[in-house]
User: Which sequence fits this backbone?
C-alpha cells in the first residue's frame, strides 16, 4: 500500500447533521489522499506505517466556504451600515474596478489566498472580477498554494457602472478562454460559470453562459433573492419569467446538482420547489445578510426539505473569512428566526452548523468535508489548550472552539492528504 499515512488524535466530524462523530485518541488511515479507515484501535496490519501523533489535539475536516468575492478583501469592514444596492455602488464596484491592474490584483489576491489558508478554509468557491488576466492570476495562486477552489470570472454587461461593464460578446469570449486554459490544469482548482446576478447580465449573455456551462459541463454560481428591492427590480427586468429563480432556469443556469445560489432568503414556495428540482446548493451567508439587513434565510425549512446547503463568508458583505465565525452566527440568526416564526422553525444545533461548514458545502466538491471511508482527507489540527479546560468532552471542546477559537489555534492543515504549509508568494 503506497502512500499510506496514519494520523492520530481526537477526531471530530459529522457524518450527519444531527450529531458529532467522535473518536477520542482515534486513528485515521489515509491512503492516496483519501480516508481508508477511521478507528479507535489501530489494526495490526497497519502498525508498520508512519504515524503522525497529534496527542490531545483535535482533528476536524477542513472548512468549506461556498461563497466569497476575492477582490473585495480590501473592503472588509467598510460600508456595512448600508443596504445592498448603495453598498454595491459605494464600495464594491469602485474596488473591483481596480482589478484591471495586474500589480494591484497580485498584491490583494496573494493576501486573500494566504488568509484562506490561515483560517483553515481548505476549499472555496470564489468570485473574481470581470477581468480575464487577473482572474487567471487568482487561479495560479490557488494552484500554487495547494488549496481547493472553484473560481469564476464575473460576467456583467448591463446596469453596472461604465468602468465595470463588458461588451457581451467579449464577456463570453474571455470566459471561454479561461475555461479552456484551466479546465484540466489542476485537479483541485477548477472554473465555474459566474453571472454576477440577474440585474447585471442581459438575457443574451445569460443564454450564452448557460450554453458554455452545458458545453464544458461546468458548475454555475450566482446570487438569488437577497433583498426585497432587488426582487422587485427583477420583476420589472424580466416580465417574461415567473420568478427570480425562473430567470436562471430559463437561461440554462440551473444545472442539476451543479449550481450554487448565494443567500436564498426571500424565495416563494414555487421557487423552493424549483431549487429542489435542480438540487441547487444554497450558500447561507448570515454575516452578510445581517450586515446588509437583507433578512434571515429560512434555513430550517431548506434542511427539513432536504435541499443541499453550505456556508459562505460572502466577503466583504460578510466581514470575516472565518467559517467558525459564520457557523456561530448561523446559530444566532436561526434563533432569531425561530422567535420570528412563532417558534416554528427550530434553531440549529452546533453539530448542524459544523456539518454545513464542512460536509454540507463539501458535497459540492464531491466526497469532501468528512472522515468517512473514501472521503478526501482535508483536515485541520486544532490546539485548544489555551481556550480553557481540555478535560471537557470532545463535543464541548469543538463547540468552544467554534465560538471563541480562531486561526491561532490551527496548527496544521491538510488538503487531499497533503500537509499544506503557509503559501510563499
Ligand atoms: Zn456575494
Assistant:
Amino acid at each position: 500500500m503506497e502512500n499510506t499515512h496514519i494520523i492520530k488524535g481526537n477526531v471530530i466530524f459529522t457524518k450527519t447533521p444531527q450529531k458529532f462523530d467522535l473518536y477520542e485518541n482515534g486513528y485515521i488511515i489515509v491512503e492516496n489522499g483519501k480516508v481508508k479507515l477511521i478507528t479507535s484501535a489501530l489494526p495490526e496490519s497497519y502498525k508498520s506505517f508512519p504515524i503522525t501523533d497529534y496527542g490531545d489535539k483535535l482533528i476536524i475536516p477542513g472548512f468549506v466556504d461556498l461563497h466569497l468575492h476575492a477582490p473585495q478583501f480590501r473592503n472588509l469592514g467598510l460600508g456595512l451600515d448600508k443596504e445592498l444596492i448603495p453598498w454595491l455602488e459605494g464600495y464594491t464596484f469602485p474596488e473591483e474596478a481596480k482589478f484591471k491592474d495586474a500589480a494591484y490584483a497580485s498584491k490583494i489576491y496573494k493576501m486573500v489566498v494566504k488568509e484562506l489558508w490561515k483560517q483553515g478554509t481548505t476549499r472555496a468557491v470564489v468570485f473574481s472580477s470581470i477581468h480575464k488576466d487577473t482572474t487567471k492570476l487568482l487561479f495560479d495562486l490557488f494552484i500554487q498554494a495547494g488549496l481547493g477552489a472553484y473560481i469564476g470570472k464575473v460576467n456583467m454587461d448591463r446596469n453596472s457602472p461604465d468602468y465595470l461593464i463588458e461588451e457581451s460578446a467579449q464577456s463570453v469570449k474571455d470566459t471561454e478562454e479561461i475555461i479552456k486554459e484551466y479546465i484540466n490544469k489542476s485537479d483541485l482548482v477548477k472554473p465555474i460559470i459566474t453571472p454576477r446576478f440577474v440585474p447585471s447580465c442581459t438575457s443574451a449573455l445569460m443564454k450564452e453562459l448557460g450554453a458554455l456551462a452545458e458545453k464544458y459541463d461546468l458548475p454555475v454560481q450566482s446570487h438569488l433573492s437577497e433583498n426585497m428591492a432587488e426582487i422587485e427590480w427583477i420583476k420589472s427586468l424580466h416580465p417574461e419569467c415567473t420568478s427570480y429563480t425562473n430567470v436562471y432556469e430559463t437561461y440554462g443556469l440551473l444545472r442539476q446538482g451543479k449550481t450554487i445560489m448565494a443567500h436564498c432568503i426571500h424565495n416563494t414556495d414555487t421557487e423552493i420547489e424549483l431549487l429542489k428540482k435542480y438540487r441547487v446548493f444554497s450558500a447561507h451567508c448570515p454575516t452578510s445578510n445581517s450586515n446588509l439587513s437583507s433578512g434571515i434565510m429560512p434555513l430550517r425549512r431548506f434542511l427539513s426539505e432536504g435541499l443541499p446547503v453550505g456556508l459562505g463568508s460572502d466577503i466583504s458583505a460578510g466581514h470575516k473569512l472565518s467559517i467558525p465565525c459564520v457557523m456561530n452566527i448561523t446559530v444566532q440568526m436561526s434563533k432569531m428566526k425561530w422567535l420570528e416564526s412563532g417558534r416554528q422553525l427550530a434553531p440549529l444545533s452546533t453539530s448542524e452548523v459544523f456539518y454545513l461548514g464542512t460536509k454540507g458545502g463539501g458535497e459540492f466538491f464531491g466526497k469532501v468535508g468528512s472522515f468517512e471511508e473514501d472521503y478526501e482527507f482535508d483536515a485541520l489540527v486544532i490546539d485548544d489548550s489555551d481556550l480553557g479546560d481540555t478535560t471537557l468532552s470532545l463535543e464541548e471542546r469543538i463547540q468552544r472552539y467554534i465560538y471563541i477559537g480562531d486561526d491561532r489555534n490551527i496548527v496544521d492543515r491538510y488538503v487531499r492528504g497533503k500537509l499544506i504549509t503557509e503559501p510563499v508568494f
